[in-house]
Amino acid sequence: GSAASWGTVAGGGALEFISRTTVSSVVSDISINNAFSSTYDNYRMVFESLMVDTNGADINWGFRSTTTGTVDTMNFIVRGATAAGVDGGTAFYYATSSAYAYLAPYVTHDGGLQGSVDIYRPFLSTATDWTMYAGLTIGYNTNESAVSVNYIGAGTSNTTSLPHIKIWASSGNIGDASTPGYIDLYGYKKS
User: Fold this and answer.
1) Local structure of 47: helix, strand or coil
2) What 3-state DSSP class applies to 88?
3) Are the C-beta atoms of residues 89 and 81 closer than 8 Å to each other?
4) Contact (Cβ atoms closer than 8 angstroms) between residue 109 and residue 132
5) Does 185 have pLDDT greater than 70?
6) SS3 assignment, position 163
7) Which of 63, 110, 149, 170 is the most buried (most CB within 10 A)?
8) What is the spatial distance between Cα 125 and Cα 154, in angstroms, rounded to a whole number?
9) Comparing C-alpha atoms, which of 50, 59, 13, 22 is closest to residue 184?
10) H helices within the chain, ranges in order?
């Protein structure tokens, strides 16, 4: 017999690393400008240790067409599942035509928020290319007094390219000098 031989996998993985944003101080908001481009149609954002300096604040986010403009309105839904809490351990939040969406509601400073979100077609700009996302976040929910796994999703009805991300706390600030947070952005390869 002959020895086994190994070939190189063509193309590598389906995700390609784009950037890392480090949050190592307390800030009013996190801006990830020029996050999206024509290189990819779809993206994944992975984050860890996003902290709020006011216990019980929501971590909000949205997409913008300009680096300093307002966040585009969207229709969002959050379904949180906890070991304790209302309705048999679930909490439900939603809004239509909202100026923000939750990454998670009622976040605690201790432990922060972890998660990942798939973002679909944020750079494209036709009537069939609305920016949408779906993801999963996990953190302690102060309203439920338990760790909450949050299933999140939203969509805009804007036909404008939305290449910029803004993340902020509903009250107080976001970030922590003693525990840095990280936001990694990846692009899904086109075929």
Assistant:
1) strand
2) helix
3) yes
4) no
5) yes
6) coil
7) 63
8) 17
9) 22
10) 86-89
Burial class (CB in 10 A: 0-12, 13-18, 19+), 22: exposed
- Higher-scoring residue by pLDDT: 186, 3: 186
Residue that is written with structure tokens 């839904």 in the block: 77
pLDDT of residue 7: 54
The tokens for 161 are: 């390219």
User: 3-class DSSP state for residue 87?
Assistant: helix
Cα dihedral sign for 126, 128, 129, 133? positive
Tokens at 100, concatenated: 């923000």
Q: Helix H segments across 70-114?
A: 86-89
Helix/strand/coil for 83: coil
Q: Which residue has the tokens 């290319």?
A: 129
> In the block, which residue shows the tokens 């351990």?
89
Exposure string over 136-161, b if 16+ CB within 10 A, otherwise e: ebbbbbbbbebbbbbebbbbbebeeb
User: Identity (one letter) of the amino acid at 68?
Assistant: T
Alpha helices (runs of H) in 21-109, residue ranges in sequence order? 86-89
d(Cα 60, Cα 46) in Å, to the nearest integer? 15
Q: pLDDT digit string (tens) for 46-78?
A: 999 999 999 899 999 999 889 998 888 888 888
- The tokens of 108 are what? 């605690």
